[in-house]
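Minutes, methods subgroup
Present: GH (chair), OT, SY

1. OT presented the first of two proteins processed in the latest run. Sequence and structure tokens recorded below as shown on screen.
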Amino acid sequence: MTKKLWFQVGVGILLALLIIRMFIEVKGIFSPLVIIGQTIFLPLLLGGVLFYLTRPLLNFLESKGWPRWTSILAIFIAIGFFLWLFSFMIGPAVTKQVNSLVEDAPKITKDVQTMVDYALDQKNRLPDSIKESIDNQSSKLNDFAQRFGVGLITFIQSMFQGLFLLVLIPFFLVYLLKDHEKFAPFVANFFSGERKTWIRKTLVDIDITLKSYIQGQLFVSFAVGMMLLIGYLIIGLDYALILAIFGMFMNVIPFLGPYISVIPALIIGFIQEPQMAIYVAIIMLIAQQIESNLISPNVMGRALDIHPLTVITVILAAGNIAGLWGIILAIPTYAVIKTILKNAYARRAEIKEAATSTVEEE
């Protein structure tokens, strides 16, 4: 029985739960490590994202004979130029629309309150059974909105609190660009024989998975933001630029992002002109259909190969466990775990096949 896969998996799960339980019991001992991890988490995360975005440029420059340090310096110059160009071209328009939105905020708030009061008044005219069903669903929606709102506020607070740590991002990026080839051999050196080869292959596959997700997801989000901007400008929606930028950033959140990003656009569109909300919904629908059926399959390919139902389940579970950070990191984490398990299963099949061949030869 001990050789059965289900038994070994069960023992592995029990051991993992036992380790987690013991870690919780003695977490005071590891509190300094937890503090250090929380401190460097955001700079390391952003540095890693920039690494996967800039590594193709590094490879291209080195293929042309540029030295490593010269290539890294060129990358930082390119990043600085891009930031300057973005602030020069987009900054004034964003500032103008943000100031306008702040000035109109009281009026928008009053209009939203009026719509809510009207909707509540109409609800009181419905049959009791329908009102009860609406109340139940509203309660569930409010609970989720409150949890998500708290997570969003915590996320924003952590972003602002970590702004002073952003100075660490260039240092992480430099060393990632400089020494990224050394990581897999360093880890593999702790092993020997075929296991060493398997470890190196698994790390390469993880690197490919993360690269496919980060580069693909950011490109897809940028494409969605551009489609929203063009659509909003065509229909004449107020605050089109900041709403499109908001939609671009929210699209980084799998599955839930598009629904979150369309809410403020629908509200502002309805306040501006009631039929404008319909146009906003149509634009979002078209953008998401183009993204899901044309852009994502061609940009991200089948590197992740995760079923949509699995995506929803993983996101909801991660959101309940770790809030907004869990929602953002759920899919790449799941993809990495899936890659490890896939390689482990393939390795097990190879060992089993080799053992069978040996027995047959004897």
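2. SY then presented the second protein from the same run.
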Amino acid sequence: MSGTPAAAKLPPRSWKANLPPIGTLGPFLALLLACAFFATQSDRFLTGENFSLVLQQVMVVGVIAIGQTLIILTAGIDLSCGMVMALGGIVMTKLAVEMGLPAPLAILCGIGVTALFGLANGLLVTKIKLPPFIVTLGTLNIAFAITQLYSNAQTVTDLPPMMTWLGGTFRLGGTSVAYGVVLMLAMYLGVWFWLRETAAGRHVYAVGNSPEATRLTGIATERVLLGVYVMAGVFYGIAALLSVARTGVGDPNAGQTENLDAITAVVLGGTSLFGGRGLIVGTLIGAVIVGVLRNGLTLMGTPSVYQVLITGILVIVAVAIDQLSRKGGR
């Protein structure tokens, strides 16, 4: 009898087995192709300052997309994210400027409001069993109305320095990097670890794959869903702070396209709209793809309407690929 362990007799893993998941590899290759194309069209594209600008332009949508990813992983969707973000920004700026609250407390109040909207969405989805699409379509309009009424449709200016600090930059290898970008990347890293390495994170995938089967294993699916919507609300509040920091004002008209931009980033990043499949890293890549497309087309002098057209086509292609891959896996 040989003393060699049985595990040692297993054949080595093939090179294909060592490749990243296709859900991440596909978006990453798309990003590389886009960068290669725009590099041939503009000398300014492949510069550190330009890439820093792209990340600054996507940091708000990128953080919103974290919350959107968590919801889509559970087979839901949140149309209200952009307007909830705008409401959070108005609340924190008005409390600081007009009510005189200390900036940290005002920021927490703004994040608290967005978390409450997440809680309301979660309760309507879990307790009354309303479809997430309908629920968040309703709360989108509610958040928009409250934002306009509370702000009197007026921009809030003269913000305390603490609210705009994340919009500042520091030098890294000769390139200006925004503090908000660092915060966004740190949050992606934290959520990646949570989804990958914790039981609570794996429960999110389980609920998206099969809520009933997950419930039968003893996991409280309603609690998982409720937690996901509240967490998403918190991310929208952080995105509100980043938006305020980047623009330097509390804008009641912010957030009107961020919901679609966030969904676009999630879909382009390979997360399935049917739930249970996707990687948070893919969402970051998807957000950067959108930023690179808009930046590159702008450098080429392409009208903005074509940027919207190309983004729409990419979303349809990404969803079609997801649908075909699901059918092929059956």
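Chair's summary of item 2: Residues 221-247 form the longest helix (27 residues).
Next meeting: continue with the remaining queue.
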